[in-house]
Amino acid sequence: MKKLPILIGALFLAGCVTVPPNTFVVTPELLQQRQLETRRYDGIKEADLITASANVLQDLGFNLENSETKLGVLTASKQRDATNGGEVAAAIIVALLGGGAMAISKDQTIRVALVVRPVNDSSGKAMSDSHFVRVTFQRLVRRTDNSTIAQTLREPELYQDFYERVSKSVFLEAQKYEIPIHCNSSVSVTS
Predict the structure, then answer these.
(1) Among the CATH numbers 1.20.120, 3.20.20, 3.30.310, 3.30.450, which is that of 41-184?
(2) Model confidence, pTM
């Protein structure tokens, strides 16, 4: 019985929470980023597409963390140095001017999340051997004061290079079985 007043109080407080308007607004920038992150592949099975993507990530130095073929999900990461000459120079100047120690970037973890999902036809049914692939690259930078900075990488060249490599990997795999493969880089992403 003592838990009932606590439960009622929690429900009352939860009812007072409001979500700001326009929290999930789709902006032109968001759509442009999704276009950059997404490609459509026709003529290849989902498992083969995930395998080709995993091979490319490993070639790029990533360690695979999770792969769930049935769900079409793949995650990977790699560790890299994040030392920046400009930051080091600024820290030295600040210290010489008596400003004390300034935190600088020391290392980073670059993470990749890849999702493969079927393309649906106009009636909403999944099309055979047609898939959207969406990949996102993020980095978590650790600084000398143990703070962290997280950011999504948005450089178009990064995504273009990744998809060019995946397309080559898929093409080479298809040549073994003489299967025509098509990649569409001008995908219209609405969901």
Answers:
(1) 3.30.310
(2) 0.74
